[in-house]
Specification:
The chain is mainly β. About 10% of the residues lie in helices and about 40% in strands. The chain has helices at about 125-140, 145-150, and strands at about 25-35, 35-45, 50-55, 65, 90-100, 105-115, 115-125, 155, 170-180, 180-190, 195-200, 210-215. Strands 1, 2, 3, 4, 5, 6, 7 and 8 form an eight-stranded mixed sheet that branches. Strands 9-10-11-12 form a four-stranded antiparallel sheet, with no helix packed on it. A hairpin with a 4-residue loop joins β2 and β3.
Length: about 220
């Protein structure tokens, strides 16, 4: 067996005392930097709006979490649309992060949920990320969520032309660097197949029409 569930599961659970992650913690991005493993995870709290929390571990099992979010919805395309504010569960925000280190820059590709879900990107230099980690240690107990959020540079929507098309969304992505000047993006448009697009930069631009990578074949995957 290649993979076995950890006997320590779940490694993260909601924290009822933290209003922003009191309901759910899930859909995480993981990366190892030096001797530490970082989880950038999706959290949902009392207002049913998604934000990203950060957890740190030496062994990949025992995590220390920051008591505040490190990435918050702030752009128009990330903020909940008024029509979603009465939803019982997900009302909007930033969801489902993936993270990759390219050179000295950490890139995240994530789902921005406004009226519909659309892929978006942001970045932070490795130096700025480490500085924020050190600042967190220095100012123990202080809410640095705003400082963290400002440390990320928003790149914007991956496919901005889809944003105004009713009922069309993009999400469920992962980005890989194949060569120094070639980056590949796997993603899904609406309820279609998994597509792949290429770019010479992790910031795009990406090919408008993706090449099918995995197509729907079986009854249990016909919906999406």
């Amino acid at each position: 067996m290649l993979f076995r569930s950890s006997t320590h599961n779940p490694i993260l659970i909601p924290v009822k005392e933290h209003w922003w992650e009191s309901k759910l913690v899930y859909n995480t991005a993981a990366i190892k930097l030096g001797d530490r493993i970082y989880l950038l995870y999706r959290a949902m709290g009392d207002d049913h709006v998604a934000r990203f929390g950060l957890a740190v571990s030496k062994n990949g099992v025992d995590f220390v979490r920051l008591p505040y979010p490190v990435f918050l919805p702030s752009e128009d395309y990330e903020l909940p649309h008024p029509s979603k504010l009465d939803h019982d569960r997900e009302r909007g925000g930033v969801e489902d992060p993936r993270i990759i280190l390219v050179g000295n820059t950490l890139y995240i590709i994530y789902t921005a949920f406004h009226k519909m879900c659309h892929l978006a990107m942001a970045k932070i230099s490795l130096e700025a990320f480490r500085n924020m980690i050190n600042e967190t240690k220095t100012y123990h107990g202080k809410d640095l969520s705003s400082d963290w959020n400002l440390s990320w540079e928003r790149i914007g929507l991956v496919f901005p032309h889809l944003f105004e098309i009713p009922e069309i969304f993009s999400r469920n992505s992962v980005m890989l660097q194949l060569q120094q000047d070639l980056v590949i993006l796997f993603y899904r448009i609406h309820k279609g197949d998994i597509l792949v697009s290429l770019s010479s930069s992790p910031e795009g631009p990406w090919e408008d029409r993706g090449i099918p990578f995995l197509t729907k074949r079986f009854p249990w995957e016909k919906e999406r």
